[in-house]
């Protein structure tokens, strides 16, 4: 279980990114983190694994307070946290298999990682993960030869190669088309369910969050202003999170996107006749 207690982040400029965030994520639960730009969503995720240093508060992963650890102990504990990035963060010139195996770098001696001589058990595990994310036939391809959806699947497999106890996912669908976005979200939720993995997913697409997330946490100006199941995410709740003007603009954008997709499907149907 992950527990955040009074987590806050104030930058040297005096800007407050997070203010007294307190929440718990039990085993197997997937949280969708939503809110307007600048609400603190990415900062929250990065504070948990301390890519951003929190100003105060506790970050309890099990019985370990990650916020209090020195560099050496933090390096060990980060192996327990899988991170999936919006822009994939793959090494483009390496193969899919090599990128997945990079998830094991925290577990092998430097000479093995430098020579890319990973233990047979790690290689076997990597093949299993590639099969699970539907990329077995692409194992020997370079990462830069893949589509966006395929790259995100590699990122998922790499995170799972760590054997994590927690997944942090930062806008996994921001660069993907709607169909691929749903496929990636479905894959993430299935994997978390299979493995009992808790996950926090920073996601900008509210309908997608409502469709796939078990619980929604809404941030506004660094504070939690909503925490509940998707069916409680009413128009009033969304206005609290985004503000009236921002929420109306978001709804209009969703409607325009839906109309554009419908028109595209219509054109394809005509061409198919």
UniProtKB/TrEMBL annotation:
The keyword Cell membrane applies. One of its GO terms (molecular function) is ABC-type phosphonate transporter activity. GO terms for cellular component: membrane. The keyword Metal-binding does not apply. Gene3D superfamilies: P-loop containing nucleotide triphosphate hydrolases (3.40.50.300). Residues 2-246 form the ABC transporter domain. Keywords: ATP-binding, Cell membrane, Membrane, Nucleotide-binding, Translocase, Transport. InterPro entries: AAA+_ATPase (IPR003593), ABC_transporter-like_ATP-bd (IPR003439), ABC_transporter-like_CS (IPR017871), ABC_transpr_PhnC (IPR012693), MetN_ABC_transporter-like (IPR050086), P-loop_NTPase (IPR027417). It comes from the Bacteria. This is Phosphonate ABC transporter ATP-binding protein. It comes from Pararhodobacter oceanensis.
